[in-house]
Amino acid sequence: MILVKSNMNTTKYRQNIIFEFRRLKEQAEGAFDQVEDADFHKCLSGNDNSIAIIVKHMSGNMRSRWRDFLTADGEKEDRYRDTEFEIIDSDSRNGLMRRWEEGWKLLFDTLENLNDGDITATVRIRHEPFLVTEAIHRQLTHYASHVGQIILLAKHFAGDNWKTLSVAKGKSEAFNANPAGYLDKNS
């Protein structure tokens, strides 16, 4: 459990958590950029999720969790979670990416508008109470696991054309010696 002290700097907390969510979004989008449309919808095997399915699921989750975050249960009645794991004909890459952007906009708008009193409030997800900070961290870890899946799939499909989203293997010393220079050369 995360304990929140009354003297917590809400602004710094919000800035940090928004930074971490933005970083996850950027990593996923860096992976999307390296995947052809056909691979975006491809599963490695019958029961696996494609990148498209993960995007659809994350978008549905964000819409449910972040809409009316402080006032309604995070599992909305109009969410049909099981359908997030089914791709239908109208689930084009562009359409899924629009949902992706809408979900992230809800998340960032919600986080940017939290105030000191909101941070210590209690919200519900599936009728279970969570401190706001607990609910936020729950979503951060949930999205991080899915972004990891997206990166793994994208890396698999890109093969030798993959461009790392982090410090490349064998390049840690170069990065540590000059992080800014390394990033400039390798971005």
Summarize the structure.
With 187 residues, this protein is mainly α. The chain is 58% helix and 4% strand.
Describe, in plain words, how this protein is organized in 3D.
- This protein is mainly α and 187 residues long.
- The chain has a single domain (10-186), classed as dinb family like domain (Four Helix Bundle (Hemerythrin (Met), subunit A), Up-down Bundle), CATH 1.20.120.450.
- It is 58% helix and 4% strand.
- It has 8 helices and 2 strands.
- It has a two-stranded antiparallel sheet with strand order 1-2.
- Strand 1 and strand 2 (128-131) form a beta hairpin.
- Helix 3 (51-66) runs parallel beside helix 4 (93-112) and helix 3 packs antiparallel against helix 6 (132-158).
- It is flat and about 50 Å long.
- The N and C termini lie far apart (38 Å).
- The model has no long low-confidence stretch (mean pLDDT 91).
List keywords for this structure.
187 residues, 8 helices, Four Helix Bundle (Hemerythrin (Met), subunit A), 58% helix, mainly alpha, two-stranded antiparallel ribbon, flat
Helix and strand arrangement:
Elements: H1 10-32, H2 37-40, H3 51-66, H4 93-112, H5 116-119, E1 122-125, E2 128-131, H6 132-158, H7 172-177, H8 179-186
Antiparallel strand pairs: 1-2
Helix pairs in contact: 1-4, 1-6, 3-4, 3-6
